[in-house]
Amino acid sequence: MSDQKAALEWRDGDIPVSTRFDDPYFSLADGLAETRHVFLAGNDLPARFRPGFRIAELGFGTGLNMLAALIAWRASGQPGRLIYTSFEAFPLSAPEIGRALRAFPEAEAVAAPFLAQWATGARQILLDDLEAEILIGDAREMLPRWGGQADAWFLDGFSPAKNPELWSGDLLAEVARHTAAGGTFATYTAAGSVRRALSDAGFAVERRKGHGNKRHMSTGRLNTDD
Ligand SMILES: C[S@@+](CC[C@H](N)C(=O)[O-])C[C@H]1O[C@@H](n2cnc3c(N)ncnc32)[C@H](O)[C@@H]1O
Asked: Whose CA is nearest to atom 19 of ligand 1?
């Protein structure tokens, strides 16, 4: 699979903005706090962490969500490795990720071992407490072929208006198909089309308060068959 690079510009110094999608990689307000609110709390983490817990993500970007999850995993004192799988079509380079993470000292402080491996071209990252794999390519092709399952999904494409391919009904049906029993998703968007697609895919979708001044976000748990 060809490695298509991200197309970036930097706003206000160190905020990466995709010129391909005309959208920032994370909240201009406080990306780390938003990640924690939307993706961690939205999936009821760290409370649901247990040994071997599996997170999957659409849109790896700067790795900020992964690092926030790793920080939470460490703080929770779970033994063993957090399993993290992310799908990314346009990977950032290690220097680009390093620059983006400067805005978040807490994430930057734990990023070095990951970045050292990423800089070599490795897309499987192994630390004492993290087993991560970033699957490079269009998620619409890669996810149907993925053999894994996730206990929690971070749905983090660019906005549905600008990046509709990461929010299509077909892809979200694949998300559900790759969700373990009792598994959940969280996303910052409350767009009706996304909520309907996730509901059609088999999730009980819930609207929660969004981060900061955003009114709503969405979470959901996979319906059981009975
Ligand atoms: C909002 S950013 C993700 C931010 C990221 N989670 C972080 O922690 O920095 C959305 C990401 O989705 C990726 N993306 C967009 N379309 C995609 C597709 N069809 N398949 C896979 N990745 C895609 C973009 O390249 C971008 O990195």
From this structure: 138
